[in-house]
């Protein structure tokens, strides 16, 4: 059974243009850094909705917006880690 929480990273065209391919490796590295690979599964998503506020991620029904390669570490720490109980 796969009971990992899904972390959705928007791969839609707007988020693509806003640099999701720079964000992706950083998210992967953060999951390793915080040893979350057993708890959280990173999934690509189609457009999550708020395209103009991309790059967008969704975790446990919470949308995390305005992500960049520069702020992903901070947003991950503030918005995702609390939701996984870290
Ligand atoms: S393309 Fe990412 S939210 Fe629409």
The major sheet is characterized as:
4 strands, mixed
Q: Could you name the CATH homologous superfamily?
A: Glutaredoxin
If strands are numbered along the chain, what order do they take across the biggest sheet?
2-1-3-4
Mean pLDDT: 95
- Please report the distance between the alpha carbons of the first and last residues: 23 Å
What name does CATH use for the topology? Glutaredoxin
Assembly state: single chain
Strand content: 15-25%
> Which ligands accompany this protein?
FE2/S2 (inorganic) cluster
CATH C-level name: Alpha Beta
Helix proportion? 25-40%
Order of helices and strands: EHHEEEH
Number of domains: 1
**SS-based class:** alpha+beta
Count of DSSP H/I helices: 3
Please specify the SSE layout and strand pairing.
Elements (H helix, E strand, L loop, with lengths): L4 E6 L2 H5 L2 H14 L6 E6 L11 E3 L2 E3 L7 H9 L6
Parallel strand pairs: 1-2
Antiparallel strand pairs: 1-3, 3-4
Bound molecules: FE2/S2 (inorganic) cluster.
The site of FE2/S2 (inorganic) cluster has 12 residues, from helix 1.
């Amino acid at each position: 059974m796969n009971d990992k929480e899904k972390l959705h990273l928007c791969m839609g065209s707007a988020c693509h243009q806003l640099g999701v391919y720079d964000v992706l490796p950083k998210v992967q590295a953060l999951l390793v850094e915080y040893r979350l690979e057993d708890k959280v599964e990173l999934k690509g998503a189609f457009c999550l909705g708020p395209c103009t506020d991309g790059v967008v991620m969704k975790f446990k029904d919470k949308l995390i917006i305005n992500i960049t390669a520069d702020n992903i570490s901070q947003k991950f720490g503030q918005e995702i880690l609390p939701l996984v109980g870290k």
